[in-house]
Amino acid sequence: MPPRTALVAGATGLVGREILQGLLADEGVATVHVLARRAPDLRHPKLVVHLVDFTRLPALPALDEAYLALGTTIKVAGSQPAFRAVDLDANLAVARAARAAGATRLGVVSAMGADSQSAIFYNRVKGELEKAVDGLGYEGVVIARPSFLLGDRQSLGQPERTGEKIAAGVGRWIGHVLPANLRPIRAADVARALLRTVPQAKAAQVLLSGDMQPA
């Protein structure tokens, strides 16, 4: 296969950071473009960083695949509209721009319980994003729906999320008896599942949290 050109949005986040590192280490990837409001604390010969305003994205360079890992919380965003502007609007803007730049495959970091008809606002927004990207004409779309994420948010300068902290404690004590889809999952395992699946994707596919847990 010819060398691929990839794009990551959200590379300074928990899963996005792992996706970026995986792409940079992949000998089959020639260039990795990152869209960000602030530059990641990383330098690499393959890495091209574009500092952008996600409400006014520029035309993107030619791409083969793209990964959407932008995300926040309502607490951090400050309101439901502000949360929606990141988790739905910004991700969707990147997906559209990447498709216009020739990307044929897309990986999306969503969430367990995503459903565009959900009564829960968070799950509804995640589901709306899944539904929207499915109609953009990608040859392959891979949706990752992780349970509570495990990873070092402190090293990213991000506040610890209460649900993830509780889930990590529960996982240590009774994780082995929980159904696979409910167990907390490491951000690195979510990234690896997407990196393994997206380059070969031929249709729409959902990876549940249990599917991404290591054997």
TrEMBL record:
Entries under SUPFAM superfamilies matching the protein? NAD(P)-binding Rossmann-fold domains (SSF51735)
Domain called NAD(P)-binding: residue spans: 10-118
Indicate the transmembrane segments per the record. none
Q: Which InterPro entries match?
A: NAD(P)-bd_dom, NAD(P)-bd_dom_sf
Q: Which domain of life is it from?
A: Bacteria
Q: Which Gene3D superfamilies match?
A: NAD(P)-binding Rossmann-like Domain
Under Pfam families, the record lists:
NAD_binding_10
Record's protein name: NAD(P)H-binding protein
What is the scientific name of the source organism? Answer: Ramlibacter pallidus
Top-down, what is the taxonomic lineage of the species of origin? Bacteria, Pseudomonadati, Pseudomonadota, Betaproteobacteria, Burkholderiales
